[in-house]
Queue: 2 jobs
Job 1
Amino acid sequence: MRTTLTCFASAICLSMLAGCGGHTLYEWRGYENKLYDHYKNPAQQQEFTEAMKEVVLGAEAEGRVPPGIYAEYGFLLFEQGNSAAAIQYYKKEAARWPESEMLMEKMIAVAEKRFKKPVAPGQPAVSVPPAKPAAAAPQEVSR
């Protein structure tokens, strides 16, 4: 009898532990490790883009797309010159996460602007405005 009770209690504990481990609200598919590898090897951008594509497609298949993943993948595509695809992913991000809509609209506007005017090879994907000259420090008035 005692052995049966011990086995039953062990089975309940194991089932509870199995139910607690590894389940998250979103499907990340190793995103953290892929991002870390990209930071360590930024020259391997194409590999990171492919890894992010796997994250996006896997999360879509599960129906558990994390916030920001569409936008990040879209930005990778934008950096590689694929503005049309970037716009699609920015729109997906705005549709899935309405709180990001304002930022995504701005990103779409930038991508559309670039889409209409191709960037020459060797130029940065996003034009950065020149830095403003530093304002002179206010002079102290002596009395």
Job 2
Amino acid sequence: MKILVAGYGNPFREDDRLGHELAPLICEFLISKGIEAETWIEQQLLPEIVEDLRDKDLAIFIDASAEGLPEGFLLEVMKPDPNIEGLNIHSMGPAWVLHLMESLKIPYPETLLLSVSGHSFDFKEEITPICRERMERALQSFKEIWEKRYSSC
């Protein structure tokens, strides 16, 4: 199984840097399980990520959310969606990337999005303690879900 763990967000905006910190932790966990995994870190998703996803069996996107998620985080399965989340291509999400792959007739991998509720998005280069605690719970939950659902892959 080949996996791309894609963390994105602005590393200079407090909790928005969450994807940059959580993606490598998830990748390390997967590698420790004998999985072929690599990390992709950027400030935003761009169409070029299609090439990185081309030969993957699973993609895991990780981002901070401005929404107050019920448990402080949410792991969901993504499907192709042509809608861009904001006003322009700079605010496209994983579902739009899958739509792009589908439009280009490129097979897309099973795709998960792990969103963690951010607390503050001010100009600082560290995650808030509240968001860090949510991130740790999200990581633990991901590991448990992985063991139940994917450990036989």
